[in-house]
Design goal:
This protein is an all-alpha fold. It contains eleven helices and no strands. The longest helix is centred in the middle third of the chain and has 22 residues.
């Protein structure tokens, strides 16, 4: 069987449904997808492909459990087993795990930097929304988010350097990057429990 060098959104959705079952992982992946789509539109990139990168970047997490040294690599294995051969997608997925001990992948392309930042900003925004009395993303102010961003103790696992790098590689101010992310996540708030 010939390897597929393209993946459609429907095909990506089937893989997403097959491998990701945990609610918060599904929400995080969808949030990353919509942020990536919004950024791609802003930057004149392929919004569908960037969205797919966001949707599939954590595809392996339900299968690998706590074995983070397999993170990213196992997603690529799952995609190869489904007969895909898409180096740009594989590289973006592998590069977003930069910094995990024992893994040597490094971000190099604009897509790779932005995916790593987009998936991290979801954690910051989600943590902020959870603290709000109404638990809704609507009305989230970037100025308030920036204050939380500057506090390393808040959402401590969020990699702020990856978020800064993503904004830099997108050629925008950090506040604009955050604004796009909040707006994109607000668009699916009904799905993710933030409406």
């Amino acid at each position: 069987m010939e390897q597929k060098t393209h993946i459609s959104y429907d095909e990506a959705g089937m893989l997403f449904d097959k491998y990701l079952k945990t609610g918060y992982l599904r929400h995080h992946s969808r949030e990353t997808e919509v942020i990536m789509r919004a950024l791609a539109l802003q930057l004149g990139e392929d919004a569908e492909f960037w969205g797919i990168c966001g949707l599939l970047h954590d595809l392996d997490l339900d299968e690998i459990g706590d074995d983070m040294q397999r993170h990213g690599t196992h997603t690529v294995e799952l995609l190869k087993a489904a007969n895909y051969n898409i180096p740009e997608l594989f590289n973006a997925i592998l590069a977003h795990v930069e910094g995990i001990p024992g893994l040597s992948y490094r971000r190099s392309s604009r897509l790779e930097y932005i995916l790593a930042g987009a998936e991290n900003i979801t954690g910051l925004i989600t943590a902020y929304v959870i603290l709000r009395p109404d638990k809704k993303i609507a009305g989230t102010k970037v100025s308030s988010l920036m204050k939380k961003f500057k506090s390393p103790a808040f959402a401590a696992k969020v990699n702020r350097d990856f978020i800064r790098d993503a904004a830099l590689h997108a050629g925008m101010e950090l506040t604009q990057f955050m604004e796009i992310a909040v707006s994109a996540m607000e668009g699916i708030a009904g799905e993710t429990g933030m409406a």
